[in-house]
Amino acid sequence: MPARIPAGPIALWRSQAGHAVASADRCPHRGMRLSHGFVRGEALSCIYHGWSYGKTGNCLRIPAHPSLTPPETIRVATHDVEESDGIIWIALGQPAARPPRFEGLVPLRSLTVNANVAAVEAAAGAKADPEGLVSPSQHPQEIRLLLAPQDDQTLIHVLLDDKSSPSRRIAASRTAESLRRMAEDLQAKVQAS
Amino acid sequence: MRDEWYPVGLFSQLDRNGRNTVLMGEPITVALDAEGAATVTSGSGRALPVRVRYGHVWSSLGNPRKELFAIPEADQPGRRFVDVGVVRVRCSPLRAVENFLDIAHFPFVHTDILGAEPHTEVEEYKVEIRKDEDEVWATQVKFYQPQAAKSANGGITTEYMYRVPAPTCSVLYKTCPPRPGEWDVITLFVQPLAEDLCDVWPWMALFDDATPMADLIHFQQTIFLQDRSILENQIPRLLPLDPGMEIPTRADLTSVAYRRWLKRHNYTYGAQLVAQ
Amino acid sequence: MKLYDYVLSPSCYKVRLMAALIGVKLEIRPVDFHPGAEHLGPELMALNPAGSIPILEDGDLILTESTAMLAYLAAKAAPEWLGSGAPEETARIQQWLSFSHRLTASLGGARLHEMLLRPGDIAALQAQGIAALRELEAGLVEQGLRGMRFLASDRPTIADIACFPYVALAPDGGILLDPYPAIRLWSRAIRGLDDFIEMPGIHRLHELNPEPQIEPGAA
């Protein structure tokens, strides 16, 4: 799937063996977005010409030349990926520490908001705590928000108590939708003034 | 670049009211006059040069030094001419042409029609820039195709010849299943609206008396629309002429020659010269 | 059964896809919608005065609404696609069938504008399309929390087929699908169904086929 990090767009994929990999979202052959590609086994292939890349970014196969071993120089950039408690973290460069753990919380869903982090925090009525979590003032028991700025948008990862019932989870998803509407209204007002 | 001929409309679709469109950023109007002849007028009211050939109206913002390229097969008796119609694509006009010159994508993008795994190998073919005509030509291009044309039954190894007679136009000659020894002609005429936006006008001159016209149109629209989703997702939108930006292989020799030919002619509309 | 069909029309594709998934053979009659505007000619207007396609003809039954065609095909050949009859499921199917018309108007309108140069307020169409995609995403998230992979149940119904084509082709109208992970999973589930067929703009899921083992020089 496509994702965005400060270093640019990435193709985030999971190999058959279960490894999550973050590759640059551009095939160096003709510039096609690799996030449109397909995963077979431990490789991500470009949808355009089927060039495939391994977990470390090296080109494994060029279908137009089946007997050719692709040279080492053909590769896509990759980033370190960590998975913890259902959240995927991508490191820019060498990570100094492990990603934070959120005890007792479970991820619910991710939403893209057409508003910046400040507008999302204003809608939630709370700022991020030292771990990066926002506890919306109206719904302190219901959800936590983990915010990732993406240019002029914000990606919200919604987390909640891991003992929540299915109906509580559905309600939390609807709460997140309301918060998004509020944040986007606030952002629109700021831009209009 | 302004002195090249560009397609700006289907002649069969023109009327007195005309069609408002854009050529290289300038608004133009393509219409029929009282005598039924095509006219092209710039936004400032200037009459632009006009040709009506290959089902399309052609024009130029400048003063073309060369006549519109010839397609001798267009005058050959017995062919059916297919106006496939316009499709807009958010990409460089040059990316659209380059994709048309490429066969290695067939198994992945035109799966089970123009190609299929495991038949992915591109055998060696010949590419040249012909000096007399000043055109790019690729010949002896062969590829295994499950359904090469509407008139094809089952898989065949198809032979192709590609020709680039103008920067935003390409002509493909392709094995003609009902008439061995002859070539079907399939063209891609591209109207540059902007450097990263184009209207694409595919056109065909086929030996095929059996297939209904709507089937022929649908076949070619299917193929082109499969390409469209690729073309709108290439980064950058402009065609990089800097060799460091993208990595070609032996299968890409037509593309390499096309890029070199564009560079030699300093044709940079829709191109990116320096890596960014 | 005869389908008056345009290969690039998502509404026509709904009917082709449904028929393929349940093994019904259709007689396809291609219509030169673009550039020929054959759907507005006398032969097709006699069948459908609204001047739209698809048109499905079976004996003296003439259907001009794709949703009705999906219901007809399913009722004839595969009633499980109409749902189990449980009240909530029945309601959800109807809800998403009605919703699918908004997808046609918004995402479909944007696609016709951006691809085939049809008139329209592109900014408004795209905004309405994004609003509809967000509703669909939220609906699919909730279904996931109920343990169901599809819009009305844990198996696909005609509601999924009614919504899938315009959603999958949203990028044709300049609307990215990147922000919708639940839609992505749902779309993959539909594309992975047995006997699924594509249309231009929806690529084959090549991951479902094994990596070909090619002997050097054998191809």
From TrEMBL, chain C:
Alphabetized PROSITE patterns for the sequence: GST_CTER, GST_NTER
InterPro entries, A to Z: Glutathione-S-Trfase_C-like, Glutathione-S-Trfase_C_sf, Glutathione_S-Trfase, Glutathione_S-Trfase_N, Thioredoxin-like_sf
Record-annotated GST N-terminal domain positions: 1-81
SUPFAM superfamilies assigned to the protein according to its UniProt record, in alphabetical order: GST C-terminal domain-like, Thioredoxin-like
Listed name of the protein: Glutathione S-transferase
Residue stretches spanning the membrane: none
Keyword Nuclease: no
Domain GST C-terminal: 86-214
Keyword line: Transferase
